[in-house]
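Worked Example 4.2. Consider the chain below.
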Amino acid sequence: MADAEDREQHNHGSGTFVGGDVHGGFWQIFVPPYGKTMSSQSTRSERRPELDDEERDDYEDRMAALLVSAWLAATAGSAVVYALLGRPWAGQGPTPGVAARIVGGFFFSYICLAATAAFFARVSQVFEVWSEHCAITATQSRGRLVARPPASMSRATAGLTAGAAVVAELLASLYGWSSYGGSVSRRAHQARLNAAANARSALAAARRPQA
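Applying the procedure from the previous section yields the following structure tokens:
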């Protein structure tokens, strides 16, 4: 009776039979556990549990927000140039007066700097995610020689993250009196800290002793 109970099949889902039990999908025969790929969001939640759900969701729209902020900065910047040169803002419209040029120049400069701050904050997020991917590759590599190239890339992208984050934080300080400036500054600051942590983990993987 005991032998029959030991041979009892325990199904835990459709997939591979091992010793009479089912252990996941058929692909697991060929792919070992360390070869599993994880999404950037799940990896970020495991590696940096201090991020809340709202901050993790902020990364999902980083590319769309980057493009929108770049378009706004370019459009507002063009309007500032038109105001300085005294050109009409709309096609063949009338040339604006001096007062309109001054007011419009300040207004579009305000929008241009705000959009530029948001743009560099999103750029820092993009570089930070790249540094994370490189760090994951380095930590999963077998041997220091294999881990060194992605570790170097992680450190390089972390430096780019820091540069973009500093620019974003400087521009966001102009709007520190508003919640907008605070949110942009926090976004850039968090990306800079995360990228530095990625670089440290990648460097540790490149310096670990041979197995």
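The first helix runs from residue 2 to 6. The longest strand covers residues 17-18. Compare this with Example 4.1 before moving on.
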